[in-house]
Design brief:
The complex is a heterodimer of chains A (238) and B (256). Chain A has 238 residues and is of the alpha/beta class. In chain A, 38% of the residues lie in helices and 26% in strands. Chain A has 9 helices and 10 strands. In chain A, strands 6-7-8-3-9-10 form a 6-stranded mixed β-sheet, sandwiched between helices. A 4-stranded antiparallel β-sheet of chain A has the order 2-1-4-5, with helices on one face. Chain B has one domain. The chains are: A alpha/beta (238), B mainly alpha (256). The structure holds adenosine-5'-diphosphate (ADP) and magnesium ion. Adenosine-5'-diphosphate binds next to helix 1 of chain A.
């Protein structure tokens, strides 16, 4: 479970996160919807401990991560998968080596077991043929799939995805959204996805929150939100 | 006035951050968390990249030293001393400094551009999300490789430079081959060699540090990579020049 209390963050003069309060239940798939520049990525980076807030706390399974030192965070992050908007695969490694990297770093698995595991995960994301390719040889959608494979290879119980559908055509957007949904429910992992893609978000989300200029302006299940009478919500959703 | 103070403040903060970064690298080195596989890879890349251009420069420098030295020394009737002039100039000063310049332009620029690209494409942050310290994984091996490659390149440069001098001395100035070799060996003593070599160790650390730091500071997409890489090389040059002056003074004070 993830509990966010009174989270605020300022860059220079600009208030990017403004008193965010949020509770994310175990095993739930939460989508953070908002226009670009509304603070989605910054919020997600706080959840990963990549940024420190000015105020507020974030508790993951009861531990306040805003108080942790970087070495404690490094340890904690082994249990969390993070999908970057552009994938952020190591461009000097093949897809296979990228996905194997967390296993090599953090497990005592033998070469053969690592190979099997990577193959299995690549199959899950539909990239079993692309293991020997370098990231520069992949399309945008394949990069995201490969990065997703790297994010889940340690069987993380928490998965954060930053705009998994941005820059993809509608069909690829839909398929990566459902892939995240599938992984989330098969691995029972608590999943937070940021997006400005309303259609796909509503297809996969258990809960949705809507943020605008760093404030939460609406939340609920997709159905509840759709029926909301709030003017901004209706405008954003239309 | 205001801009002057903010520039000064930026400079102080920047220097502080750079020193902190260097401290972080040292802590990792002291802890002994070193990825030797990565180090070997970097040694290979950095070494291979600079070796030909250093050979070329050194040979030409040695040859030019012999040509000019011969003319000058001939006026004093001391043309046999060309070998000493070439060897001492190379070993004490020219090879360490020239090699460091070339090294920062080749290996240093490569380091800054590689790390800068990784920074702007989130690969550095991704390393943190994967539970790995980016300094340990990306920086320490590169700096360590600089520290091992540059001294090797400098010794190589000295040998090639002496060969350049020898070529002119023997084939152009008609000094006897055995005499030239004998003069060279007699010219260089321990102090001469090490006064140059110690400087090299400093230059290696400076180039590795500055270029890794600038790489990690990079922001602003591909434009930023270009800017910060240029900055890395320029800073390396300036630091090498300044440190060379200071170190030379210190070394001469103690060792003459
Ligand atoms: N490291 C940073 N330094 C300064 N401003 C930032 C930084 N990261 C994000 N911002 C600003 O915060 C705002 C929200 O950014 P972001 O969270 O990336 O938006 P999005 O919802 O599109 O993901 C933007 O106006 C952006 O300019
Ligand atoms: Mg974003």
């Amino acid at each position: 479970m993830i509990t966010i209390k009174g989270l605020s963050k300022r860059f220079d003069q600009q208030l990017v996160l403004d008193n965010i309060n949020l509770e994310i239940k175990k095993g739930e798939l939460l989508v953070i919807l908002g226009e670009s520049g509304s603070g989605k990525s910054v919020l997600l980076q706080h959840l990963m401990g990549l940024l420190k807030p000015d105020q507020g706390s974030i508790a993951i399974d009861g531990q306040d991560i805003t108080k942790m030192k970087e070495w404690q965070l490094l340890k904690m992050r082994k249990n969390i998968g993070y999908l970057f908007q552009e994938g952020a695969l190591y461009d000097f490694m093949t897809v296979f080596e990228n996905v194997a990297f967390p296993l090599v770093e953090h497990t005592q698995l033998k070469r053969k077991d690592i190979k099997d595991k990577v193959k299995r995960v690549l199959k899950t994301v539909g990239l079993e043929e692309a293991g020997n390719k370098f990231p520069s040889e992949l399309s945008g959608g394949m990069k995201k799939r490969a990065a997703l494979a790297r994010a889940i290879v340690l069987d993380s119980k928490i998965l954060f995805c930053d705009e998994p559908t941005s820059g993809l055509d509608p069909i690829k957007s839909r398929s990566i959204s459902f892939l995240i949904k599938k992984i989330s429910s098969e691995l029972h992992c608590t999943t937070v996805v940021t997006s400005h893609d309303i259609r796909n978000s509503f297809r996969i989300a258990d809960q949705v929150i809507l943020i605008k200029e760093g404030k939460v302006v609406g939340s609920g299940t997709p159905r509840v939100l759709q029926d909301s009478q709030d003017a901004f919500i209706q405008e954003f959703l239309s | 006035m205001k801009t002057f103070f903010s520039a000064l403040l930026n400079f102080v903060v920047g220097t502080g951050e750079a020193l902190f970064f260097f401290g972080d690298v040292c802590v990792h080195l002291l802890k002994g968390k070193i990825r030797w596989g990565e180090v070997l890879k970097q040694i290979y890349e950095q070494g291979v990249q600079s070796v030909i251009i250093i050979a070329l420069t050194s040979f030409a420098t040695g040859a030019v030293l012999a040509l000019q030295g011969y003319v000058m020394l001939n006026r004093f009737g001391a043309k046999e001393n060309v070998a000493q002039l070439v060897a001492l100039s190379l070993v004490r000063e020219l090879s360490p400094v020239f090699s460091s310049f070339i090294f920062s332009g080749k290996a240093g620029a490569r380091i800054a551009a590689e790390l800068g690209t990784m920074k702007v494409s989130d690969q550095v942050t991704a390393t943190r999300t994967l539970g790995v310290d980016p300094v340990e994984f990306l920086v320490v091996p590169r700096i360590l490789a600089c520290f091992m490659v540059l001294p090797g390149l400098v010794v190589f440069s000295e040998l090639i430079g002496i060969l350049g001098g020898y070529t002119i001395g023997v084939f152009d100035a008609n000094i006897q081959s055995s005499a030239y070799i004998h003069q060279t060996i007699r010219a260089i003593n321990f102090v001469d060699f090490f006064s140059g070599f110690i400087k090299t160790l400093f230059f290696a650390a400076i180039i590795g540090w500055v270029c890794c730091y600038q790489g990690f500071q990079t922001k602003g997409g591909s434009l930023g990579v270009g800017q910060y890489t240029t900055k890395a090389v320029a800073f390396s040059y300036i630091m090498v020049v300044l440190f060379n002056a200071v170190l030379t003074k210190i070394i001469l004070t103690f060792w003459g």
